[in-house]
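Chain X:
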Amino acid sequence: MMSFRRTGFVRRKICKFCLDSIDYIDYKDAKKLRGFITDRGKIIPRRISGNCALHQRQLTTAIKRARNIALLPFTLQ
């Protein structure tokens, strides 16, 4: 048995940091970093956020640094 899924046109997600031409993601900007964390405190993956590989690596490092100096919580409850 074959099941057919409805396939549609999926628009490629664009990196928000590349659009704003940001070279370095600052760990002290907690408001911007909070948008890339789920309600459970996990970092949103690249395939969902649409970031490029370079900015996703910088984002991950910035979130981890912000967590260590208590700008962001490890878990949101």
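Chain Y:
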Amino acid sequence: MRLLAIALTVTLFSTYSRAEVRLPGIIGDHMVLQQKSDARLWGWTEAGKTVAVKCSWNNKTVSARSDSKGAWEVRVKTPAAGGPYEITIDDGKRITLKDVLIGEVWLCSGQSNMEMPLKGFEYGQYVEGAQDYIANANPERPIRMAQLKLDYSPTPKEDCEVRWVTNSAEFLPDISACAVFFGDYMQSALNIPIGLIITDWGASTIETWMNRESIMRVLPNTDFSILEDPDNYKNSPQQTPTLLFNAMVYPLRKYTVKGMIWYQGESNIPNYQDYADLQDSLITLWRETFDNPDMPFCFTQIAPFEYPYLNKRAAYLREQQSISLKRIKNASMAVTIDIGEKSVIHPRNKQEVSKRLAWGALALGYGRQIEYQSPEYVSHEVDGGRIIIHVSNAEQGLHTNLNEGEYIPGFEVAGEDKHFYPAQAALIHKPEEAIAVSSPEVPRPIAVRYCFKDYQPGFLFNSYGLPLAPFRSDNWDDAQGPVFWW
């Protein structure tokens, strides 16, 4: 027994003597820290040990003592954008983080349209402009990306698998195209380093990016028993409530970020009725999680696509996204009704999507005086056999990219029978901007819709090229067909 005790003591001493500080995956070489903030750095070491952190931008050292579980955390004041810098972390054995930049950090999340990498998806689903961007990639350009590895968990996790990479052709093909083009636009506009933390999973529902409390605010009768046995969700974790929030958001909570871009919604088309409330609850949760109550939230309205058997449910989901926009403070919505594709759910024009997201980010996050919201339906009035539509965000009028005199598709009108017919549209510029729509099939119209279908491209824009958002003036629920489409 005495020999066993001595051996155990020697083993423990050797283990502790080799122990050194461990950092979470999101903290490492090439990372970008949010400028002018009290950024948190944290990790694990032996219990009760002092950890000293020194940053080269001010050569000041801050220290913390690890708790009973070995966890430690410090806050460092970051300067205005710049770099590269080094950070040394020392608990008796020193770690040096190199090539650290100070700039603006944005979260990028959602499902497959956010996940779609620059190299595209198989079966001809490519990204426009990807080859040019990769060919001209400059690793010295101050854009850094951290794309999380897919993971899920029924309980919150403290760490995730991720590493920061440079703007290099070596890494770019596998990075989210939407995030890359967003970062490219933001870096050009702000001329400072940009950090992108990318956490996404194709076919994911909004509920999987939320915790129990935020879901129950909207759906109080939610049954979470599926989480009790991994066999229940191992084949579809990205469509199981809370799993991705626990594994791919919660571990990031201490990292200081500026704002968030979000591209999700297709997987919630079957239960579209709750989407506005769920998105409201999600952004409340994420703002609380990252301790940023005014965090800009820039999201994408799902694009047109001819979903099998859905019959307008996608239109209702878009409507829910528009409703959410009106209720969430400090938010923007990138309308994509003009760039969808009939037979491909992943539009190839990610550059335009990202540019519209960036316009919202620049306006909300940095006070840029630019137009970033699409024209939206405000009201209508019946004028004999016509309906006159009034819209917002079109002070200089609307225009179409069709040939002069060409029919403007997408408008429909209905009478008392609630049956919609295609309508002719005419742009009115005086005495104010408006749209007049009519149909010989409906002599006494009472309701109007625009692009209110699963797939119906839009062709009307304001003077800044932002498309008129799809809308309806009625409140009739005529969604039909089977609930599920995959």
